[in-house]
Q: What sequence folds into this?
């Protein structure tokens, strides 16, 4: 490889990780506008913003979202977290042990390994007893095994590698299992965190319900495609505490649709369902019936659905597999198996949506992929997104706060997939052209073309005044011929060029050129400010 190629390779090395991306101007303008609109609309419904950590204990998500869900079992970015300084000795011993190679010949050479194992065990067991490493059943059993295997290794020492080598492998395996730090995970969603914060800050003592919203990145190791990323962004809202009156469900959905309308999303469809509650006379009874029905058609289902019959039969209803659709259509519907209370609740949610003028479609297959839901579930799809067309999902989750160690608490909320919302808005903007209210232009309003030292001083002052008045100004740092400056202004998409030469400075009359039609006018500084104020805003 030549030097030049090697350098090129070297330069190519750093790219955004698969499933993550940079969001650049002018697109970021639309992101900001969307978040600003959420902030404004949600505030009119009484929501305050909560800012949450990006990582939390892995167990929080396992408990809340469900250990069997795809999100937790397959897609979480989890890692062991510990202070490398505090555990440097233990880490060194672990490395020495794990990198030790079984020698090809000889018997006495196992001695170093036995010594490493002993000192690792002693230090780890002491840390375990002092609770400096997690005092979990997993660690307890790994340490017990290491001690047992170490004794065994000691007892076969000198009898040949055939007896010792398998024990070395087993010891290494169990040493790997000792967790030095806590397991943390990048958040795959934020409802669990909001509930954790509700409990941690005793929010049940505040006037109920507590209404919170959040925006920010979430992380799921999914297969990337259009509208599906490994780092994606959500705008979510949760209502915790107080009543589970259907009016709450209907108002949350009303707020969501108000937001989508205000932000300019067109063609959105709201789907709703009720999945009842976890009792034999309600959802649990239904799941039994569903399971039985699925067993009857098991051999016609794909591998994923077959597995789900045992792990999570409701999720079979979510299947997008073409070959399963006709079979799924014949399965029992949950609506026919809801208890009276859940039935009444659902009917009232629907009535209240009508009262609020919110259009919806019922979808009996809408069960959602997270375990915490009960009763009302909903999803919104938007056009222009291909197969990943769910732009928002949500539902009721009474009981989740309690599951996480808090008091019995009602809860409901949603999360909007901001990436998908933006994609759909961009599709709309594309079809409407540059005059679309959603079009973004990251361009200065005004480009100052100056020539000469005196003009530069005036230009600096003018830029300061104009920016102070809120106008976007581009001031070139080096002198350019007027022709070149105007070309540059055009390239940047500026609306106006302010021409400042010696004449303009001495007359105190500045030349303003409208770049679209080439017309020019002479203005004093105050007139210029007034003229710009009278113009329509550049974007939005
Ligand atoms: P979710 O349905 O998992 O619900 O996600 C909500 C939305 O986030 C989805 O409808 C989708 O728009 C977006 N989304 C999910 N995964 C990805 C991805 N890999 N790439 C891009 N966008 C994605 C929840 O997260 C619940 N916490 C919602 C909730 C709040 N329920 C009650 N409160």
A:
């Amino acid at each position: 490889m030549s030097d030049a190629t090697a350098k090129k390779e070297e330069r190519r090395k750093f790219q955004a990780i698969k499933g993550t991306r940079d969001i650049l101007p002018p697109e970021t303008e639309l992101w900001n506008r969307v978040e600003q609109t959420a902030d404004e609309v949600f505030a009119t419904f009484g929501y305050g913003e909560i800012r949450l950590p990006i990582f939390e204990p892995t167990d929080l998500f396992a408990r809340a979202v469900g250990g069997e869900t795809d999100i937790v079992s397959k897609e979480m970015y989890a890692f062991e977290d510990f202070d490398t300084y505090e555990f440097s000795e233990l880490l060194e011993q672990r490395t020495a042990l794990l990198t030790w190679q079984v020698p090809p010949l000889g018997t006495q050479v196992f001695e170093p390994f036995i010594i490493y194992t002993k000192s690792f065990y002693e230090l780890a067991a002491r840390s375990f007893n002092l609770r400096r490493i997690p005092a979990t059943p997993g660690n307890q059993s790994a340490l017990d095994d290491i001690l047992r295997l170490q004794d065994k290794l000691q007892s076969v020492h000198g009898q040949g590698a055939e007896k010792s080598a398998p024990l070395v492998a087993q010891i290494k395996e169990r040493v790997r299992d000792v967790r030095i730090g806590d397991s943390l995970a990048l958040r795959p969603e934020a409802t669990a965190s909001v509930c954790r914060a509700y409990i941690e800050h005793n929010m049940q003592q505040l006037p109920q319900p507590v209404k919170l919203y959040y925006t920010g990145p979430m992380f799921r190791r999914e297969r990337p495609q259009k509208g599906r990323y490994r780092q994606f962004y959500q705008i979510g809202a949760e209502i915790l505490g107080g009543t589970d009156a259907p009016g709450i469900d209907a108002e949350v959905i009303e707020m969501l649709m108000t937001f989508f309308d205000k932000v300019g999303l067109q063609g959105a469809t709201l789907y709703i369902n009720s999945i009842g509650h976890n009792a034999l006379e309600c959802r649990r009874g239904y799941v039994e019936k569903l399971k039985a029905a699925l067993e009857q058609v098991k051999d016609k289902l794909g591998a994923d659905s077959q597995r789900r019959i045992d792990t999570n039969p409701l999720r079979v209803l979510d299947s997008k597999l073409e070959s399963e659709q006709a079979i799924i259509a014949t399965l029992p519907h949950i609506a026919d198996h809801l208890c009276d209370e859940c039935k009444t609740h659902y009917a009232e949610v629907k009535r209240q949506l009508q009262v609020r003028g919110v259009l919806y479609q019922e979808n009996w297959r809408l069960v959602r992929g997270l375990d915490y839901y009960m009763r009302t579930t909903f999803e919104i799809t938007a056009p222009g997104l291909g197969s990943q067309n769910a732009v928002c999902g949500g539902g009721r989750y009474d009981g989740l706060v309690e599951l996480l160690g808090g008091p019995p608490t009602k809860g409901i909320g949603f999360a909007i997939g901001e990436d998908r919302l933006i994609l759909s808005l961009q599709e709309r903007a594309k079809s409407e052209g540059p005059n679309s209210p959603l079009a973004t232009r990251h361009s200065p309003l005004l480009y100052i073309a100056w020539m000469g030292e005196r003009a530069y001083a005036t230009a600096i002052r003018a830029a300061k005044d104009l920016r102070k008045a809120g106008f976007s100004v581009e001031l070139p740092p080096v002198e350019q011929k007027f022709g070149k400056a105007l070309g540059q202004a055009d390239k940047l998409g500026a609306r106006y060029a302010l021409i400042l030469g010696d004449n303009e400075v001495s007359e105190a009359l500045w030349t303003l050129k409208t770049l679209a039609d080439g017309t020019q006018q002479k203005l004093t500084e105050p007139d210029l400010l007034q003229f710009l104020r009278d113009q329509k805003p550049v974007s939005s």
Q: What stands out?
A: The chain has 20 helices and 16 strands. The chain has a mean pLDDT of 93. Residues 199 and 406 are 5 Å apart (CA to CA). The chain has four domains: 27-73+185-282+338-427, 83-180, 283-333, 446-534.
